[in-house]
């Protein structure tokens, strides 16, 4: 979902309506606490107690002054604390001075960062007296275009618009970057994962070059195609960090970049830079971090490498994956200067470095990380390497190093955390009783003959997170791996049954072995943390019956791995980043009973093959980007269906009346689509919503998470399916009347028809739905009176009739005596309690309204008799009050029929 970003901290105020309906909405504890911490940093300069409503006596922060919550989710989305009178002015309207009578001051507490769903912040016209301004909107899943009005924040010092990755379509876009030049006080800018359009790509460096105090610029993963090749005047005199990692820049490195002598951190990695690196890099004597890796087209001349030796402050040098073809010994010139004294990280992996590892490597005594994997190095390892006692990370894999690594060699590596000697002829040979002096977090010995006693010392490693033992020889299946979370044991000749003793493993690769038999019957209990297991290319003779991969970071398309011969009954891919069309083969398993693909990025229509799933009782395709019409076959073929959730897609067309054929259906959610037409009258025939005839299908015993809208909120329900009954058709383009037949659904607990174009009156048949707990008919075009029968709904907790054309007196009694007035908002002709508008000004109006409420089918004769009766009533006005007559009249409708026939 794309959110419109609107932030205002300038002196121009925007008024926000405060009469939003919050009935049934309660704010979240974490957001309430964040607001209270924010309040604690503020000063009420005018002593007007503007934030007096912000207190623990009113726990619902959605009711606090200036706070607006989403009326569906309850999350705080707007915070409006602008000064309503920011200036005292002359008659001509020119501002004279700031008016502090209603102003707030103090400091902006960073607790606002906890308001993850905030899309509107207005603090304009207040007086924060020069307090630092930090605007952090990172990872808030904003989308759309960045408003140039952010340029009005001339005192802003830190602006963070970053995200952590490409999360669905919620990415900010930079169309115009000129407004950046207005942020004269800006020191730190992070725009990672912001998409730069062409004009912005041309402008942004020039705009930032004009800022006198800019010190840190981060633009990672912005798909930038270019970096301006010319910059006439380099004004980046304060710039210390420049990060352009992982863009699409395809050019030579501009020479002006190496004129910024204040730079301490420069990251140009994972781009498409080519050509020679300017030798002027030797002038950047302040550099502490230099990363150029992943630019295969860059040419590392020996002259350039020689220039590096003068970077005395350099701590990190990353030249990995750059196709460097020198002999490793030639690099000694780099480390002959002062750089060797402070260098802590040296990354040279993924090049074509050749020759032996020279002994001068031992001169880098401050080295903590050394990456030499994936080169063409060979020969024995020099003894000087084992003298680097500060090493924490050592990558030597995928070379041709040979010889034996013993426990004596590793004795001084007391700080070692990650060791990689994979796919090399090195032999790790240690004694059975060896206890290392280090505690590893990661170990990769893939493809190495590890020796018969090797696994024993693994039991001493209490912090090991990942272990890669692929192609390590024939290992016993009884290995114990303690706290290991990521375990790779492929291609090791494992035999026997699938082991189930990996208590803390989250990812387990046992592929390409000789495991046989069946899967452990309770692997989800014995390996409770497991979310990925690879058992391919073994001899297992049993198919999975359950596959649950929900709530991970899976992306791409679903692989072709389901066949007609599969025993799969339970399949859950929900809450991932899967895309493409819903594959037809996913419906092939003949025993499929449960399928959830919700909260992904699937597109296209529902495949025709779904009609084969005659045993399916649970189908959730909600919160995707599916299109087309809802197949009629869902009602005609999926006869066991209990739950059908298609919410938040782009389905169009009419609702198939055939859905009423689903005898066992308990939850129907078609909300937030583009469906049109009328609500089928046949929807009054859902058998399981009419009477308790449920026989107890296999599905009703399952307890699963479901995203449903009920009682005015979108909630994750973890419940037995058979314990709830809901219909949600909200946020569509439905029109016509609410069918009377809906009143047949005596067991229905929630119905939501809001946000459509429904007309006509509210059928009084709803009053017979005595299990109803939530009824939302808001934002339609309904007219007429609210049926008095609704007061019979004793379990009704949430009612919303706002934004319609309803008229007449609001019923009283039962739950109606407890409802908030806001549920009737924007119905101008409603009257009576709890509204302030009274219904009757005099007796004549009372009579007329009583007549208007009579059934339209009553004959003219009844109206004539009614006139006589009403005269009799007026005559007795001094004896009975009008309300009591009103009650008696409606309590004895047969009395008036008697007058007609007598």
Describe this structure in words.
This is Leucine-rich repeat protein. It comes from Dioscorea alata (Purple yam). This protein is an alpha/beta fold. Among the domains are: 1-128, Leucine-rich repeat, LRR (right-handed beta-alpha superhelix) (Alpha-Beta Horseshoe); 132-249, Alpha-Beta Horseshoe (Leucine-rich repeat, LRR (right-handed beta-alpha superhelix)), CATH 3.80.10; 543-831, Ribonuclease Inhibitor (Leucine-rich repeat, LRR (right-handed beta-alpha superhelix)), CATH 3.80.10.10; 843-901, no CATH class. It has 11 helices and 61 strands. The protein starts with 5 loop residues before the first strand and ends with a helix. Mean pLDDT is 79; it is low at 1-23, 87-98, 694-704, 715-721 and 842-902.
Number of helices: 11
Taking all Cα atoms into account, the compactness measure Rg is 36 Å
Looking at the structure, the CATH topology of the domain at 543-831 is Leucine-rich repeat, LRR (right-handed beta-alpha superhelix)
The second-level CATH architecture of the domain at 543-831 is: Alpha-Beta Horseshoe
Which percent bin holds the helix content?
10-25%
Structural class: alpha/beta
Low-confidence stretches: 1-23, 87-98, 694-704, 715-721, 842-902
- CATH classification class of the domain at 543-831: Alpha Beta
Shape: globular
The overall pLDDT, averaged over residues, is: 79
**CATH superfamily of the domain at 543-831, called what?**
Ribonuclease Inhibitor
Strand residue content: 15-25%
Organism: Dioscorea alata (Purple yam)
Protein name: Leucine-rich repeat protein
